Amino acid sequence: MKNKLFRSIHDYFHTSRGQLVVMDAFRTLIALLLALVVAFIIIAVTSETPFETIKIFLTAPFSDAYTRGMIITQAVPLIFTGVGVCIMVKGGQFNMIGEGAFFAGAFIGAILAVRLQVPGLLAPLGAMLAAGIMMGIVGYVPAKLKAALNVNEFVSSLMLNFIIFWVCMYLFSNVFADPDAGSLATAYIDDSRRLPFLDADNEISTSILFALGTAVLGWIFLYRTKWGYAARMTGENPVFARYTGINTKKSIILVQIIGAAIAGLGGAAFLLGNSYRFIWKALPGYGFDGFIVAIIAFNNPLLVPIAALLIGYLRVGAVEMARLSDVPNEVVYIIQAVIILFIGGQAFLAGMKRRRLQALTTKAKEEGGPHV
Amino acid sequence: MFSFIFSEQFLTSMILFATPILFASFAALISKKAGTLNINVEGSMSLAALTGGLISYATQSWVLGLLSAVIVGVLMSLIFAWFALKLKTDSILSGIALNTLASGLAVYILYVVIGVKGDSSLHPSAMIPDIRIPLLADIPVIGPALFSQNLLVYLVFLSAIVLTLVLNHTRFGMHVRSVGYNPIAASSVGIPVIRTKIYALIICGVFAGLGGAYLSMVYLSYFSVGMVSGRGFIGIAAEAMGQGVPLYTMLFSLFFGAVDYFAVGAQTVLGFPYELLNTLPYIMTLIALVIYAVYDKYNLAAHPHVRWWLPKKRKASL
């Protein structure tokens, strides 16, 4: 039995598909290592005690229960925006709306959780739902423009982000600011109107459950529904998809609405899980981070939580490093950038990938077996 | 309000606010023309501003500060080029990543060099001088606004002219346009595609560097984190509205500069919330994108009465 399982795994890795998976994983690993090397060089140049600093950076996130909880908390927003990006990218849409939608979702969530006249837990749930729906409606704008007029969704969503941001800031400082708060903030959200903590000691909130649920639902949508199939076909080859009778315009609109809605929902869930007020005065960048997470996860929603935990781990490490040593935590942005640049590089290690696939094909030919 | 708009102070301030946007939009324009839109203008400007500020403080020479800012801008562009053209990372993805890198690196360098995370106001930059052109500067209203300006302001308007001439009337400009329009066709007639793109990106880096230097050595006398505050993206918006024509791009940049001035410096005049005013460039760009798209979709270019105000050869998408 064990032998049989081993054989099937062995066989899988000798198909071209298995080889692709192996190579992608290998490329990701190399990109991660390169990023860490760059970070270590920077740390070595600037730190008085480089080895100590690097050790803190790598080990501190696991040092106690609180920092381990922080990894999970850091991962929550990344999972939401990452899943949103996966769905949009799989549908062939390069849409940045996640950035603005996450920000606005958090803002809407913070306001509605206080103002909704419903008992207990229904308040945060209702607020999250409303944030998701509202951002889905906003997401319709670049989606429709792309589908109907072929307006580049990247530029239009980038513009829309800033519009969303400034409109929220206007409402924030002129309508929904709490005069009792010391600085600009929305009204205090009562404990009973927030998402409860799973573990109050290390502040892991139930928002992680929603995040994981979103990842699973996102995967089911993409790989187990006809709409997801249509979306993936549209993403891979829109002309071919249209010839086979797929309504590509509908797919283009659908994935962008879903992407924006997930980001909006995520914003609300993150805020209601871990904050008592909305206090952001700048775009938090989680939308852009979604692209990093999605690319590490090969645009597969099920892998997004792992990628998000990885980024969360690096961030917590950087924060701890800034606290305990003389190196600022911004080094983590450099790591992220290098990861994205190398994994995204089509030509990065492409020669090796091609050679491995070629070797496989020639071997199969020599053996006279079927094409793999 | 009209007397305000036609006042000398308004004109001067508008140019003051528009200059960094102009640099950013030219950077976006040349990279877009060559077919590889560099959205890392924002990040390049930030790092260039930092370098310009710190170097000019350290050497007390604005020339060295300006030079180092330009070098950093070019360097960022070359890194972008290496990833986007050599490793074939999606150019937008590369831009996002390098923006992330720049925002982190700026804070990091600032902290390592002067031990502060916010700004370098304790270490003021050597300022790039204003130059007053005699006689012309004495013309009322437009004289002080146009002929008693900063060196970089003259440079940016000069760049607009040079850019127009280079793009439309030189061999290199023709190469850039054809590489952006159809790289395969361009390479089939022997135009070195990658090399042309790299040259265009170097020019893009020079503009981004100048824009950054302007921010920390003219606009303010120090570098502060987040001082670019979306100007790189507004530059991209201005380029999108101008549809790759330097003159139109310049006019939209000037307009966005005026909006910026209203939003930051002249709230009291309008009595309008600055947050909503800030959305104006983005809303206008969105509307312009829609107009251009309709124009493309219904092929209005073929219509003689519509044609005159738009450039003749436009790429179908965006």
What would you say this structure looks like, in words?
- The complex is a heterodimer of chains A (372) and B (318).
- Chain A has 372 residues and is mainly alpha-helical.
- The longest helix of chain A has 31 residues, at 16-46.
- Helix content of chain A is 73%, strand content 1%.
- Chain A has a domain at 71-308.
- Chain A has helices spanning 2-12, 16-46, 50-59, 65-90, 97-115, 122-149, 153-174, 207-224, 226-236, 238-243, 248-274, 286-296, 304-324, 331-344, 350-367, and strands spanning 197-199, 204-205.
- Chain B has 318 residues and is an all-alpha fold.
- Chain B has one domain: ABC transporter involved in vitamin B12 uptake, BtuC, CATH 1.10.3470.
- Chain B is 72% helix and 2% strand.
- Chain B contains 16 helices and two strands.
- In chain B, strands 1-2 form a two-stranded antiparallel sheet.
- The chains are: A mainly alpha (372), B mainly alpha (318).
- At the A-B interface, helix 7, helix 12 and helix 14 of A face helix 5, helix 11, helix 14 and helix 15 of B.
Query: SSE string of chain B, helix = H, strand = E?
Result: HHHHHEHEHHHHHHHHHH
Across the major sheet of chain B, the strand order is 1-2
How far apart lie the N and C ends of chain A? 25 Å
Label the CATH architecture of chain B.
Orthogonal Bundle
Instruction: Report the sheet with the most strands of chain A, covering strand number, pairing sense and barrel closure.
Output: 2 strands, antiparallel
Which regions of chain A have little confidence, pLDDT < 50, spanning 5+ residues? none
Order of helices and strands of chain A: HHHHHHHEEHHHHHHHH
Poorly predicted spans of chain B: 312-318
Counting helices, strands and paired strands, the structural category of chain A is mainly alpha
Q: Can you tell me the overall shape of chain B?
A: globular
Mean pLDDT of chain A: 89
Q: Could you tell me how far the N terminus lies from the C terminus of chain B, measured between alpha carbons in angstroms? A: 36 Å
- Radius of gyration of chain B, taken over Cα atoms and rounded to an integer in Å: 20 Å
| Structural class category of chain B | mainly alpha
Largest interface: A-B, 45 and 47 residues
Which overall shape of chain A is indicated by the principal axes computed on the Cα atoms? globular
Strand order of the largest sheet of chain A: 1-2
Helical proportion of chain B, percent range: over 70%
Count of β-strands of chain B: 2
Task: Name the beta content range of chain B.
Answer: under 5%
